[in-house]
């Protein structure tokens, strides 16, 4: 069952933190060196590195090293399980709300007759 998928849990854990979401938002513009990612956060480099490790472990980013510069890039395909799960949840809840709406409308019709 997708609800208990450890990979999905890892993705949601990585996305749960606002600092990590901010890093992903920045990386959506294109690859960036770690120092450029750390600057806007106001956090120390070791803390940012821990955030990047969580994102990389979830598969949301890939890192590379060129000399002394470590760069990060977003992995768009890694978001697909989240999108799939959210689409399934949306369909489920839209169906439930449609049935509730039908029920309420029928109830109102019956009461007005």
UniProtKB/TrEMBL annotation:
PROSITE patterns: HTH_ARSR_2 (PS50987). CDD domains: HTH_ARSR. GO terms for molecular function: DNA binding; DNA-binding transcription factor activity. It comes from the Bacteria. Residues 1-113 form the HTH arsR-type domain. InterPro entries: ArsR-like_HTH, HTH_ArsR_DNA-bd_dom, WH-like_DNA-bd_sf, WH_DNA-bd_sf. Gene3D superfamilies: Winged helix-like DNA-binding domain superfamily/Winged helix DNA-binding domain. Keywords: DNA-binding. PANTHER family: SLL0088 PROTEIN, TRANSCRIPTIONAL REGULATORY PROTEIN. This is DNA-binding transcriptional ArsR family regulator.
